[in-house]
Amino acid sequence: MEWFQQEVKNFRQNWPNIEFIDLIFTDINGTPRGKRIPAEALEKVGKGIALPLSTITLDTKGNVVESAGLGEELGEPDNICFPVPASLTPTARENTGQVLLTMMDDSATQPSPLFIRNILEKQLKQLKDNNQYPCMAFELEFYLVDKERTRSGELLKAMNPAKNIREKNTEVYDVDGLDDYDGFLTDLNTLAQAQNLNTSGALSESAPGQFEINFNHSQDVLRSCDEIIIAKRLIRQVASKHNFDATFMAKPFADEAGSGMHAHISLLDSDNNNLFSQDNGEASPLFYQTMTAMLAQSAGSIGLICPNVNSYRRFVPGAYVPTKADWATNHRGVSFRVPLSDPKNRRIEHRIAGADVNPYILAAVVLSSVLASDQYTQEQCPPALNEEAAELPRRMFEALNLLEVSELSQFISKEFIGLYLACKHSELAEFERAITTTEIDWMLHTA
User: Fold this and answer.
1) More exposed terminus of the chain, fewer Cβ within 10 Å: N or C?
2) Could you tell me which residue ranges the GS catalytic domain spans (predicted)?
3) Ranges of each domain in the chain
4) Orientation angle between helical segments 414-433 and 396-404, nearest 10 degrees
5) Burial degree of 387 (CB within 10 A; 0-12, 13-18, 19+)
6) Which residues, 6 or more positions from 20, have their beta carbon under 8 angstroms from its beta carbon?
7) Distance (Å) of CA 409 to CA 19, 198, 291, 297, 351
8) What is the fold of 2-111?
C-alpha cells in the first residue's frame, strides 16, 4: 500500500508529536470500535490488521450477538482489515491520532460481503456502470447534555457555559446562543479542519442544547459516510473536554425535539449534468422514478435506518418528523423533501433517519432507491402531500418484520439483511425483558 505509506509520511510531518494511533472499525450500529497502537507501529497497519469477523455483529453494549452466527459457532475467525484512504487524522487528544479500517475476507483479497461499507462501495460501482454518480450531503443533529443525571437516571439538559444556567428555552437558529458555546464550537471547528472534514458550519437547532452540523455535498459518498463516523467521535471528545456529554440518541428527551440525520441526494452523469432535471429545467422522469422507489421502499427500510427502540420515540406528529410515506417541495413535514433550488441543484432530502443511524446503511438505503428506479414509471409517482400516503411503522418489531419481507435485500444483500435482523431481534428481545421504573410506578399497587 504505497499510498498509505505516503499518507503516514505526510502525517508524521504535520503531526510530529503524535504518540499513539487509534485503529477504528465500525460495527453494524456504526459505533467506532478498535485498538490503540504506538505511533511508530503505524506503517505495519498498511500490511493489514487481523480482527474477528464477529466484531461486525457487536450490539449497542459491545457484546457479540451469537445468534448472528459469526462468533463461537465459527470459532471466532479473523478477517483482515486495511486502512481507509484519507482517514489518518489527529483526534481531540493532543498525542493521539486515528485511522479508519475497512474489512476484507480472511485471504485479504476480496472485500468482506458482510461489511456495510463494502456493500455501499459495490452499489456505487453499479451506479457508475450506469453513468450515474450520486452526490450526497448529510445534516447531523445532536444534543449537549450534563455529565450528571437525575436520581432516576434521566438525562439533564446542558448548563449554559456563559450564563451558568441550565438550558430550557427553545431558540431555533439562535446565532447569539452559539456565542455561549463558543469554546466548544471553536475547538470543534478547529479540529474538524485538521481532520479535513467537509463541514459547512454548526447552528442552534430547535431544542435547548441541541445543535446541527452540516456537511457539504460531495460525489465521494464513501468519504462522506466516513466523515460522519469521524465527526461523531470528534464531537464526543470535544464535548467531554468542555464538561459536557454529547448524545446522538434519536429522542433523548420526551418533551423536546428529536435528533435526525437528513441525507440529500442528487444524481449526476459523467459530465456533471443533474439527471434529476431536464434541459428545459423541469424535473426529469428519473427524478419521479427515484421518488416513487423511495416511497415504495420507505416502510421496509425503517428497520435499517431506525436501528434502536429509542429511534421510534422520535416519530411524534407535529414535530417536523415524518410519519407518512409522502413527499413535497419545500415542506419539512414529509419523508422526502425537495428543497428550493435551481434545476442544476435539484435534489431529494431523505428525512426519516434519526441521528443514531449507521451512515453507511443510510446511504445504502438511499442508493437502493436509485438502483430500483428503473422498476417504476414517472406516472406511478403519487402527488405531493398525498392524503392517502401510508403510515410509517412506529414500533421496532413492526419495522423489523417489514424489513424481512422487503425488496431491499435485492439492492443491499440478503446476507447482510439477515445478519442485521439477527442482531436487532436480539437487542429488542433483551430490551423487552427489562422491567422499567414506569411499569413499577403504574402497576406495583394496581395490577
Assistant:
1) C
2) 116-447
3) 2-111, 126-420
4) 160
5) exposed
6) 36, 37, 38, 39, 95, 96, 97
7) 43, 31, 19, 11, 22
8) Ubiquitin-like (UB roll) (3.10.20)
Sign of the CA dihedral with 77 first, then 359, 29, and 202 last: positive
Q: Are strands 20-26 and 348-350 parallel, antiparallel or unpaired?
A: unpaired
Digits of tens for pLDDT over the chain (447 positions)?
799 999 999 999 999 999 999 999 999 999 999 999 999 999 999 999 999 999 999 999 999 999 999 998 889 899 999 999 999 999 999 999 999 999 999 889 999 999 999 999 999 999 999 999 999 999 999 999 999 999 888 999 998 998 888 887 665 555 566 788 999 999 999 999 999 999 977 777 767 889 999 999 999 999 999 999 999 999 999 999 999 999 999 999 999 999 999 999 999 999 999 999 999 999 999 999 999 999 999 999 999 999 999 999 999 877 789 999 999 999 999 999 999 999 999 999 999 999 999 999 999 999 999 999 999 999 999 999 999 999 999 999 999 999 999 999 999 999 999 999 999 999 999 999 999 988 999 999 998
331 — phi, psi (to 5°)?
A: -140, 120
pTM for this model (two decimals): 0.96
The label of the residue with cell 478498535 reads 34
Q: Does domain 126-420 have CATH number 3.40.50.300?
A: no
Interhelix angle 285-305/396-404, nearest 10 degrees? 120
**CA dist 291 → 262, 309, 357, 370, 415 (Å):** 16, 27, 21, 9, 26
- Compute the distance between CA of residue 358 and CA of residue 201 in angstroms, rounded to an integer: 22
Residue matched to cell numbers 437558529: 173
